[in-house]
Amino acid sequence: GASGISCSLLLARAAGREEGWRAEMSDQEGQDADELRRAALDAVAADGRTLRDVSEALRGDREVVGAAVAQTGVALQFASEVLKDDRDIVLAAVSQTWVA
To answer: Which residues neighbour 43 within 8 Å (Cβ) at sequence distance 6 or greater?
Structure first.
């Protein structure tokens, strides 16, 4: 009866708070990811070989990989398989370093 409704209500409220907490954590993770991406862009622009040290997701990020291969074509070896097959990325790498 009444206790079943209040228990359900409490569970619904708790779930709502958890959803809010998850959304807040997701926003924080999004901000952290943006900061990591900016840091990775700065690092690979200074030394493209640092692409080997970034996450797999960032090795698949076209802009990050593009900045890395623009600095040194050797960075192409650290790119995701998809970007290793990307014509523009490969051309940028080869034009930067004939060894790529």
So the answer is: 50, 53, 54
| Residue pair 65/51 in contact by the 8 Å Cβ criterion | yes
Tell me, what DSSP letter sits at residue 77?
G
Region 48-77 average pLDDT: 96
Contact status, residue 50 vs residue 60, Cβ threshold 8 Å = no
In angstroms and rounded to an integer, the radius of gyration of the C-alpha atoms of the chain is 22
- Which of these, 38, 60, 63, 59, lies nearest to 50 by C-alpha position? 59
pTM of the model: 0.69
Q: Where in the chain does DSSP place strands (E)?
A: none
